[in-house]
FAD-binding oxidoreductase
Amino acid sequence: MNHKPLKLIEDLETAVAPARVLTDSDSLQQYGRDWTRFHTPAPLAIVLPSSVEEVQAVVRFARENQIGLVPSGGRTGLSASAVATNGEIVVAFDRMKKISNFNPIDRTVVCEPGVITEQLQQFAEEKDLFYPVDFASSGSSQIGGNIATNAGGIKVIRYGMTRDWVVGLKVVTGTGELLELNGGLVKNNTGYDLRQLFIGGEGTLGFIVEATMKLTRPPENLTALMLGAEDMNGVMSILKAFQQKVDLTAFEFFSEQALSRVVEHSQVQRPFDTPTPFYALLEFENTSEAISDTVMELFEHCMEQGWVLDGVMSQSISQLQNLWACREFISETITRWTPYKNDISVVVSKVPEFLAEIDNVVNREYPEFEIIWFGHIGDGNLHLNILKPDSLSTEEFLQKCNHVSKWVFEIVQEYVGSISAEHGVGLLKKDYLTYTRSEAEIDLMRGIKKVFDPDGIMNPGKIFD
Amino acid sequence: MNHKPLKLIEDLETAVAPARVLTDSDSLQQYGRDWTRFHTPAPLAIVLPSSVEEVQAVVRFARENQIGLVPSGGRTGLSASAVATNGEIVVAFDRMKKISNFNPIDRTVVCEPGVITEQLQQFAEEKDLFYPVDFASSGSSQIGGNIATNAGGIKVIRYGMTRDWVVGLKVVTGTGELLELNGGLVKNNTGYDLRQLFIGGEGTLGFIVEATMKLTRPPENLTALMLGAEDMNGVMSILKAFQQKVDLTAFEFFSEQALSRVVEHSQVQRPFDTPTPFYALLEFENTSEAISDTVMELFEHCMEQGWVLDGVMSQSISQLQNLWACREFISETITRWTPYKNDISVVVSKVPEFLAEIDNVVNREYPEFEIIWFGHIGDGNLHLNILKPDSLSTEEFLQKCNHVSKWVFEIVQEYVGSISAEHGVGLLKKDYLTYTRSEAEIDLMRGIKKVFDPDGIMNPGKIFD
């Protein structure tokens, strides 16, 4: 470290408080990156503010000294949005995790950005309410990060993305200014809804320093239905039939390749004996006999039509959990094959064709690759996973996967889909952004960034250059 | 009309097509304003484009000639956002009303901006689906206008605002550029969601030229419950109790003053004999005995607690319609008293105090004024109406109401509420915008406008100067 950083760090400590600044190499490593592992963390320092004023002080300091700032939440991101590779100051929100101002009539609660997703879910439960955005990393991801990346997950079909649960936002922009956006109102048609820009903005416009989150009534008697289908068109027909009659809380899918790996490598049981190419996992609130009857009728209809080859419905909470385990253990199970992963989406109706086209190109070019499909099919969101063949070194595999990415994104573009359904762009996908957003849109985004962050200090280099 | 406009109009006709341009004084009057009547229309000309290309041609023409453009939908707006007072070209979408590309799996449909709300509602019904955004002007308001003003209405508590139903948007910005935003995707985390800026942007960033709208399953066996309450705290307690157990499709309220006028001046019957100061109108899907039982238990609980003094539940569609008529006829009934109107919101839990404070100041300053309250209380959205006393001329009344507006907006600010819950800002409320949005926010909005509309030709002078 040369003299300039040393002086800078002293000044930073003066601007915030010495106890808030970390510069040891373990901290720089830990706070300098997210769950992606493609970049080498190299931040200047880590700041752990404990108040909005301290966040503002860091931003003003960074602006005066023209240093980049990288926000850091639970660091569970999968697109290298919370990665500091270039001497930035990382602002981590671990010290700001208070939940306050719960209001039972509004069903809202105020969260500091460092509140862990699970902490909010538990808080809601204690109040006989429900925070519905849920995903694999809920135990460590933070609300600020969830909002900045507009996190999705397994209940989007019923409850939407994180965007739909943010009724108020306090942010500090790139000028150090504090904005209080929307204050928890349901209806507020007074000009541009600036809150929406910070949701999914990946910290490039400013820091989220407080959020008012909406809660809802808890679901009752959740029941799952696992259906085995011959092909993806069957899965689509099942979706259409059920959506017309039942309010689904989830509609997930995965392939036999996925299920067989889970069954082989974990305690999870096969839901029924018949292996089928694809499985749909539906969940709904089983609150009356009328609903049970409707679901059974739909199930029989799907069998008669040949869309469903076999199926099972959970009769207890433990059976519900077992069915979910088939889906939830996939990601963990396949890590041993150091898989290539991609998170993409198209409109729901195009999924079968889209999936087949990707299958085709990968099978043709790299017949030794095994594809594991799963995802939130009710939202058109597919998680593409390719297992590394033992015959290839990691490097060879990654090199081939770069080609796969390009083919996949070309198909995404052809289908007017998204190169990142729920994981964001960060550093990982910015070179591919034009496959989903036009040059004109990217220019407009740059223009908007300049309005909020005239010096370009907020998470520089993320989403676009 | 001097020579310059004549030449301009000739050029405009060349740029678009003569048949698309109207300049007769009836058309200028008709297309030059919305439902507000405070401004004198004075547009240069009306253009009725029939394609995206024609819209782009008008924008390029306006940009070259530095002429303002005003969008015009169904002209049912209540904040003078679609009013041309200053030699602008009005772009009306009456010729662009095609519905196309319905997809039953995605449950989406593509609308040109001139599609009437009711036309979309009927289209959905024919497909056994439902477009849930509904309000008094559904018979003439257009989808483009609904989106530009983020229209709300009577089902927001269950279905949200128009914002929640727009899955794709094509817009023409102030440079004439066509943007295709989000293409109908459920999940698309690839940078700033520009679509959100155009929703509720009141045409100040660009024109909406196509929208992909989401549909949903139709509600089943809708049933209404009308409850009479002693005071607003009772109404709040009813809301809290019901929301915990039942998915409400509406939660409206109105005062005895409102109901008595409706009963007196229309065919509508009182729902029950006991007059009570306030009424809550709840609606839900009555799809099983379990739900009916829950609702009856809640009703009895509310009676025991003293929150409800009397009540009635609809047993048929005609009874459902009669109960709704009590609420829906209010606006029409009170027009004979040329009422002052204001559309404001606070967070739901603050409504009783907020309403009382406005009552107090108006009663104290103008004891001769009669206030009629009604609104979408489940969203914290109040419609304040004050009847003109016979003793005052319209001019005297309006003058006094200007004072009322100021007091109301001061109270809105104190309660961190919105000066426009669902009607937008337009010309009518722009002078009051700072009561809800900070100067910093307004500056940022100006910055954003400059990015999309560098010459300031898109609906100039609306929302802010």
User: Anything to note?
Assistant: The first strand of chain B starts at residue 21 and ends at 22. Residues 99-214 of chain B form a domain with the Uridine Diphospho-n-acetylenolpyruvylglucosamine Reductase; domain 3 fold (CATH 3.30.465.10). Chain B touches chain A through 87 residues (CB under 8 Å).
